[in-house]
Structures are given as structure tokens and as C-alpha cells.
Design the sequence.
């Protein structure tokens, strides 16, 4: 199963997925392509949660 980075939209191939590069926030799991995107999400999680909810 492929995921997209919830910060930058970059596609994450399963074989490259790092199990540490995800965060649970308000009952949803967010995936990231790199530690930088994960850090960005942790800094401003609301920004990315709102974006997903508006779709
Ligand atoms: Zn990313």
C-alpha cells in the first residue's frame, strides 16, 4: 500500500517507508516522506489537518 506524505504530497513507496515517519494526531495517522516533513507537521499539525478535512 502506497502513501503520500501529508506535508508535501510526495508519494511514499512501501518499500521505502520508514515506520518511524508517521504520527497519530486526533485519531488519524499521518505519513511523511522524510524527518523534515515530520518535524514540520509536529510544529503546525493544525495546518495539515484542516487541509485534509476540507476535501
Ligand atoms: Zn514530505
Sequence:
Amino acid at each position: 500500500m502506497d502513501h503520500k506524505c501529508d506535508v508535501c504530497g510526495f508519494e511514499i513507496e512501501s518499500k521505502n517507508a520508514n515506520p518511524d515517519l508517521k504520527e497519530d494526531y486526533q485519531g488519524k495517522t499521518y505519513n511523511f516522506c522524510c524527518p523534515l516533513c515530520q518535524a514540520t507537521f509536529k510544529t503546525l499539525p493544525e495546518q495539515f489537518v484542516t487541509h485534509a478535512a476540507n476535501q
About this structure: Residues 3-53 form one domain. The CA atoms of residues 6 and 31 lie 6 Å apart. The pocket of zinc ion is lined by residues 5, 7-8, 10, 32-34, 37 (CB under 6 Å). The chain has a mean pLDDT of 87.
